[in-house]
C-alpha cells in the first residue's frame, strides 16, 4: 500500500504481592499471543483498508460480537502525545509508528445494525479500548528459572502475576481460524485441511467446508490427508443428534399443520 504501518501498543499494569524487577518483563508481556491475554493483543498492527476481527462481545444485538469481521478505517488517539518510530522488535520495520494512547478504532462493519452514526460514514463503528485482567506464570515466561527462583525465595509468594491490560479488542483478519468462522457465510474462501497435531473432531473439516453457499466459491489450499474427512462423531455428539431427532418428531406430531 506504500504506507508505514501503525502499531497500537497495549497498556499493562502489573499487580503482585512484591515489587517485580525482571529484565524485559514489559516486552515479554506484550509479545504474548492473545490467547494468553484474554484476547487483547500486546501489539496490534493497523493499516487503513485491512480486514480485522472483533475479539469481544460489545453489543451482540447490534451485530457487534466476538468473531465479527470488518475493515479498519482510522485510528483515534490522544494527539497530545507524539508518535514514536523505530523499535528493537525484529517483527517491525524501522518506519513503524507506535501508538500507546489509542482511544478507539473506526471500523467498517457492513453486518452491523448500526448503519448511520452522527458525523460518521455508513457502517462505520467506533470500537473502544477495553480493559481485561489475566494471570501469567513467570516461570513459563522466562527460560532462565534461576532468575525467578532468586526473586521468589519466599515459598509463600507464588511466581504468578496479575496483569491488567488496556487495548483494542481487534486482531488482523487476513486469515481466521475455523473456530472464529463458525456461524458465518462468506463470499469466497481458501481453506487449509492439513490439521494440527492432536485429536480431530467432526467440526474440524465440516465447519470450513460449509462457510460458502456453493463449491465454486471454495478453494482448498494444498493436498491433505483423507483422514480429515473421515472423523466420526463422538458418543456425546451422537446422543445429542438422537435427542434432537426425538424432539423433531414430537414437534411434528404436535404441530402437524406446519409440516404439510
TrEMBL record:
Domain of life: Eukaryota
GO biological process: DNA replication
One GO CC annotation: replication fork
Gene3D superfamilies referenced in this protein's UniProt entry, alphabetically: P-loop containing nucleotide triphosphate hydrolases
Transmembrane regions: none
PANTHER family in alphabetical order: DNA HELICASE-RELATED, OS03G0423850 PROTEIN
Name the record gives this protein: UvrD-like helicase C-terminal domain-containing protein
Amino acid at each position: 500500500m506504500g504506507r508505514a504501518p501503525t502499531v497500537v501498543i497495549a497498556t499493562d499494569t502489573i499487580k503482585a504481592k512484591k515489587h517485580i524487577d525482571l529484565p524485559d518483563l514489559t516486552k515479554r508481556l506484550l509479545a504474548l499471543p492473545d490467547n494468553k491475554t484474554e484476547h487483547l493483543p500486546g501489539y496490534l498492527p493497523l493499516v487503513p483498508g485491512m480486514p480485522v476481527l472483533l475479539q469481544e462481545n460489545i453489543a451482540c444485538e447490534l451485530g457487534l460480537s466476538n468473531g465479527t469481521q470488518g475493515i479498519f478505517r482510522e485510528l483515534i488517539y490522544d494527539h497530545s502525545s507524539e508518535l514514536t518510530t523505530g523499535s528493537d522488535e525484529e517483527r517491525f520495520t524501522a518506519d513503524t509508528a507506535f501508538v500507546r494512547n489509542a482511544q478507539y478504532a473506526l471500523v467498517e462493519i457492513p453486518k452491523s445494525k448500526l448503519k448511520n452514526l452522527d458525523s460518521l460514514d455508513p457502517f462505520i463503528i467506533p470500537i473502544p479500548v477495553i480493559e481485561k485482567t489475566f494471570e501469567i506464570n513467570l516461570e513459563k515466561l522466562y527460560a532462565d528459572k534461576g532468575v525467578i527462583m532468586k526473586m521468589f525465595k519466599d515459598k509463600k509468594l507464588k511466581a504468578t502475576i496479575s496483569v491488567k491490560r488496556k487495548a483494542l479488542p481487534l486482531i488482523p483478519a487476513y486469515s481466521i481460524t475455523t473456530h472464529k468462522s463458525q456461524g458465518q457465510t462468506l463470499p469466497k474462501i481458501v481453506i487449509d485441511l492439513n490439521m494440527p497435531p492432536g485429536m480431530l473432531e467432526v467440526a474440524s473439516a465440516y465447519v470450513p467446508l460449509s462457510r460458502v453457499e456453493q463449491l465454486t466459491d471454495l478453494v482448498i489450499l494444498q493436498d491433505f490427508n483423507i483422514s480429515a474427512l473421515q472423523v466420526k462423531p463422538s458418543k456425546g455428539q451422537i446422543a445429542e443428534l438422537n435427542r434432537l431427532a426425538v424432539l423433531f418428531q414430537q414437534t411434528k406430531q404436535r404441530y402437524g399443520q406446519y409440516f404439510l
